[in-house]
Amino acid sequence: MNNFTFCNPTKLIFGKGTIAKIAREIPAGAKIMMTYGGGSIRRNGVYDQVTEALKGREVVEFGGIEPNPQYETLVKAVERARAEGVDYLLAVGGGSVIDGTKFIATALKYAGDPWDFMLDPSKAVEAVPLATVLTLPATGSEMNNGAVISRREFDEKLAFHNPQGYPQFSVLDPEVCYSLPERQIVNGIVDSFAHTLEQYLTFDTQAMVMDRWAEGLLQTLIELGPKLVERHDRYDEVANFMLTATMALNGFIAMGVPQDWATHMIGHELTALHGLDHAVTLAIVYPGMMRVMRREKFDKLVQYAERVWGVTGTPEEKAEAAIEKTDAFFRSLGMKTRLSEHGIGQETIDFIVDRFRKRGWNLGETGQVTPERVAEILRERM
Amino acid sequence: MNNFTFCNPTKLIFGKGTIAKIAREIPAGAKIMMTYGGGSIRRNGVYDQVTEALKGREVVEFGGIEPNPQYETLVKAVERARAEGVDYLLAVGGGSVIDGTKFIATALKYAGDPWDFMLDPSKAVEAVPLATVLTLPATGSEMNNGAVISRREFDEKLAFHNPQGYPQFSVLDPEVCYSLPERQIVNGIVDSFAHTLEQYLTFDTQAMVMDRWAEGLLQTLIELGPKLVERHDRYDEVANFMLTATMALNGFIAMGVPQDWATHMIGHELTALHGLDHAVTLAIVYPGMMRVMRREKFDKLVQYAERVWGVTGTPEEKAEAAIEKTDAFFRSLGMKTRLSEHGIGQETIDFIVDRFRKRGWNLGETGQVTPERVAEILRERM
Predict the structure, then answer these.
(1) Torsion of CA A24, A25, A28, A29, to 10 degrees
(2) Is B284:B379 a contact under the CB 8 Å cutoff?
(3) What separation in angstroms does the CA of B320 have from each of A104, A190, B61, B122, B338?
(4) Which residue among A230, A380, B99, B351 has the highest number of C-beta atoms inside a 10 angstrom radius?
(5) First CA to last CA across chain B, in angstroms?
């Protein structure tokens, strides 16, 4: 097992009717900016619950943060928050709203051009306190310090972490998920599954507890997936899904293990260039990553096949079955997992590979996912 | 799944050579009291590593905290810390030293007689900041806010929690465990196993993630047990054991689930009356708890048999096998799991049952472990 440091100070407030508890968690006298997205919270009652809970508090609203939150939108929020003297941010939404709010929180404490800390995340060190009311289980952003921000004018989608960027608290009320469109539920399942794989499917470091916990999350998602596609208004099923999505990216399964994230980096390009949903890009890329990096990931592929999918046979058969079952699982949820199904061809592959070459990126847990292998992975998924 | 609130702010610093990092974690200018036990840290080099790391800092030492830390000893530490103006506590030891240090930290901020908050733990609300260097994986005290304290003159052993009692950081260097006596390793395995069962073997609340994670800890302990009994100086095995013991009682497997703890409460009595090691009492009581509460715990007993032990057969056969395998596992580690093997008889049972009656205690996840059932459980383990 590798040496590690772990600390996650976010307070989780989980369950039915918990939105009512937010006021007592936010310091009296705080000037709050409530951030949200396209307005679904007005239709599903969450907006009313939050404003009811914050009655009598000083609140500024900033709506309209889009999926794959855009730099151009967020800098307007920063300007507005500065003008209003905001000193506490409350993100009400899914991963995009929360990620965008982490950007706002960081930018408010950053003197220069905020794009600086996107290009050099080591510059992101301070943040205005933030908290979240989660409406969409998927990214895990409600209990970590990372965020992914897009900038349209450059076709860029980049990630940063801020040590001060953990939400102070996050409210997870599973009932708010009942009204989500099925597409977002499916995206959340695939996203959580891929997050777990990025921290699990690497090389063996004898991290027995982390392996078991990652496998537990994968098993839970496999068990829940078909049920949630059928309907997502049964409390315990939605609650377990919501908790799984949070646990898949809050550091709890990352202690002492190597991490991959190459699939995410490739996926971000597909979103930046073609506007595909983040989770769709992961469902496309992951089976290709497994196939092309089969030798490097072989031991873990076999373990994953055995323990998560209950596959028997020779190690080679197990590794092959692991790849096929992963693709089949994503497809069973209704995902189109081939580039051609999205009208994407060789031109895009060439563009991405060229961009990675220019950036000098060699990705993955051992830096072996070179631009040439990225080309191979994407060709495999045509 | 039940509603819950989760927050664990302790920073884990895990791995080889990490004791050297403690100085940067403790505020400059702090007046530190370093607490420890019977002196094993002087023999195994930990004392030297800690004092080397704290060179140039103001440090007062308080050694001699005994296993099952005693009120009489701890009040002396409180007196000393007050006299010296101590404002930071560093516990270097196992669960007893850490628990004792939580008592000291709480007492230093408590105006009245400290036994007050042992009898009414709701009075424990403030604490001097504390941190730990763990030398013995077992109790999980390094990453939670609970402590168990004994008072000889009353033959009492009581628990309390303090919301401010989480260590600010805990250093876990697996190499410090190499010199532990085998008995303490075995105790740690059983203790961690029992902690996990207390949060898992209750009634089904559809907490899928928590079930998987608890099962993962149990599987890890079952896999590691025989290896660690053979020898405990192989890094990865000891590291996984150390991490498992911490994860077994830091709230990570307690989200949204009912908890039992009746076995612990009965076990504390056996320690208070006969001086048995804490883990030995758990190994004695748990199989009896499973047998007597078999109906109430039936669904989880069956799941535990299937998933953790890989048992097949009818549900009744699985439940029976679960009980037998648990007892056999403890015995395979060298534990004596019968009261008679420790020279304990009916008189002790009568005393404990009478005491629980006087306290009005009905224990367990549903309050169904009445004094009469405690009698039944202990008779079962004669």
Answers:
(1) -130
(2) no
(3) 57, 39, 51, 40, 18
(4) B99
(5) 37
> What's the pLDDT at A162?
97
Name the packing angle between helices B235-247 and A208-230 (round to 10°): 50
Strand partners, B14: A4, B172
Structure tokens at B364: 């367990």
Query: pLDDT (tens digit, 9 = 90+) per residue, A125-180?
Result: 999 999 999 999 999 999 999 999 999 898 888 899 999 999 999 999 999 999 99
How far is residue A103's CA from residue A72's CA, in Å, rounded to a whole number?
A: 12
Q: What angle do CA A14, A18, A20 make, to 5 degrees?
A: 155
Tokens of residue B246, six digits: 């911490």
Based on DSSP, count helices (H) and strands (E) in chain B, helices before strands: 15, 8
Of A288, A249, A282, A250, residue with least CA distance to A268:
A282
End-to-end CA distance of chain A: 37
Name the CATH superfamily, with its identifier, for domain B182-380.
Answer: Dehydroquinate synthase-like - alpha domain (1.20.1090.10)
The span from the CA of A362 to the CA of A359, in Å, is 9
- Residue A5 Cα, gap to closest chain B Cα (Å): 5
CATH 3.40.50.1970 is the classification of domain A11-176: yes
Whole-number pLDDT of residue A357: 97
Residue B274 has pLDDT above 90, yes or no: yes
Q: Is A14 on the interface with B (CB under 8 A)?
A: yes
Residues of chain B contacting A4 with CB distance shorter than 8 Å:
12, 14-15
Under a CB-based contact definition with an 8 Å cutoff, are residues B256 and A15 in contact?
A: yes
As a whole-number percent, the residues of chain B with pLDDT over 70 amount to: 100
DSSP-derived letter for residue B144 is S
Q: What confidence score (pLDDT) does residue A39 get?
A: 85
> What residue spans define the domains of chain A?
11-176, 181-380
Residue A4 has pLDDT above 90, yes or no: yes
The predicted model scores a pTM of 0.96
Which residue from A1, A235, A247 is facing B209, i.e. has the nearest CB? A247
Say yes or no to pLDDT of A348 above 90. yes
Residue B208: list chain A partners with CB under 8 A. Answer: 220, 223-224, 240, 244
Structure confidence at residue B302 (pLDDT): 98
Cβ-based contacts of A307 with chain B (< 8 Å):
none
Instruction: Provide the shortest C-alpha distance from residue A263 to chain B (in Å).
Output: 25
In terms of DSSP bridges, do strands B156-161 and B146-151 run parallel, antiparallel, or are they unpaired?
antiparallel
- Which tens digits make up the pLDDT trace of A226-255? 999 999 999 999 999 999 999 999 999 999
pLDDT tens-digit profile of B225-270? 999 999 999 999 999 999 999 999 999 999 999 999 999 999 999 9
Given a cut of 90, whether residue B15 has pLDDT beyond it is yes
Q: Provide the shortest C-alpha distance from residue B207 to chain A (in Å).
A: 7
Angle at B149 between CA B146 and CA B154, to 5 degrees: 145
Q: Distance between CA A369 and CA A361 in Å, rounded?
A: 8
Amino acid at B34: M
Q: What is the pLDDT of residue A157?
A: 84
Cα–Cα dist B16/A192, whole Å: 31
The pLDDT tens digits of the residues spanning B168-182 come to 999 999 999 999 999
- What amino acid is encoded at B261 in this protein? W
Residue of B nearest to A211 (CA): B216
